[in-house]
């Protein structure tokens, strides 16, 4: 089985690569950090799998096209759109160039790759697409407004495609992890937020294992972790306004609480 993973250099993406490696799968590792990608490749091969490094920045359309050309003669059975990042701060103060790049990676690249590989999977008789969304997909998030909005797109898009692509034997899963100990917080400038200062934050290995188990069973929606599942369930009983207010309190800079 050939598995393409974006954002495979660290965090959840790397842990998912390890899990597929343990199954003897062949990994196509996509990311910008070549050194870290080769580290992932090394550990995948130690676990019994095989891997190739594809160092492309999917935040750029020209790089997405290059990635698609590089894989045009390779069957991809599983596409895992894991690459993504966030940005913390008040919207009127944050850097719009970083937010537009976030949209490019979290939405544009994910859509582009899903389009290309779903067409290939249709021709080859089936496949699996895994989209890494978030518990933030279910409501708005003050101080991370653009990030939350991108993840809402991923969830909605994935649920629709799960229905639309089923006749072609293509399974689509949206994975919605909660806050996870990875490099995400550092990249998103979350040092002053209370989000990652709560007890019980899951690690990337546990999140990946629960996600892997869920999507390999063909589930359309996977929410790793009991506390995350309870949280998402409870969102059904609260107004959207209340959810936004709660998120404001959680994510507000600690010096203003």
Automatic annotation (TrEMBL):
It comes from the Bacteria. SUPFAM superfamilies: NAD(P)-binding Rossmann-fold domains. The keyword Oxidoreductase applies. Keywords: Oxidoreductase. InterPro entries: NAD(P)-bd_dom_sf (IPR036291), SDR_fam (IPR002347). It holds the Pfam family adh_short. PANTHER family: DEHYDROGENASE/REDUCTASE SDR FAMILY MEMBER 7B, SHORT-CHAIN DEHYDROGENASE-RELATED. Belongs to the short-chain dehydrogenases/reductases (SDR) family. This is Short-chain dehydrogenase. The lineage of its organism: Bacteria, Bacillati, Bacillota, Bacilli, Bacillales.
């Amino acid at each position: 089985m050939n598995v393409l993973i974006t954002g495979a250099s660290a965090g959840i993406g790397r842990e998912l690569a390890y899990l597929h490696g343990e199954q003897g799968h062949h990994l196509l590792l996509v990311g910008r950090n070549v050194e870290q990608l080769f580290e992932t490749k090394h550990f995948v091969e130690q676990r019994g799998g095989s891997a190739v490094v594809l160092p492309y920045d999917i935040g750029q359309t020209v790089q997405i096209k290059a990635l698609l050309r590089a894989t045009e003669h390779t069957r991809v059975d599983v596409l895992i759109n894991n690459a993504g990042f966030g940005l913390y701060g008040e919207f009127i103060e944050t850097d719009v160039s970083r937010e537009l790049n976030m949209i490019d990676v979290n939405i544009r690249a994910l859509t582009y790759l899903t389009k290309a590989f779903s067409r290939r999977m249709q021709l080859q008789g089936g496949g699996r697409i895994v989209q890494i969304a978030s518990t933030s997909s279910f409501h708005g998030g003050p101080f991370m407004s653009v990030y939350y909005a991108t993840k809402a797109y991923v969830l909605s898009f994935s649920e629709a495609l799960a229905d639309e692509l089923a006749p072609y034997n293509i399974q689509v899963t949206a994975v919605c992890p909660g806050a996870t100990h990875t490099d995400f917080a550092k990249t998103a400038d979350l040092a002053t937020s209370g989000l990652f200062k709560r007890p019980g934050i899951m690690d990337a290995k546990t999140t990946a294992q629960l996600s892997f188990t869920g999507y390999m069973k063909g589930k359309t929606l996977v929410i790793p972790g009991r506390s995350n599942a309870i949280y998402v369930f409870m969102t059904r009983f609260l107004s959207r306004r209340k959810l936004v207010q709660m998120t404001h309190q959680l994510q507000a800079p600690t010096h203003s609480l």
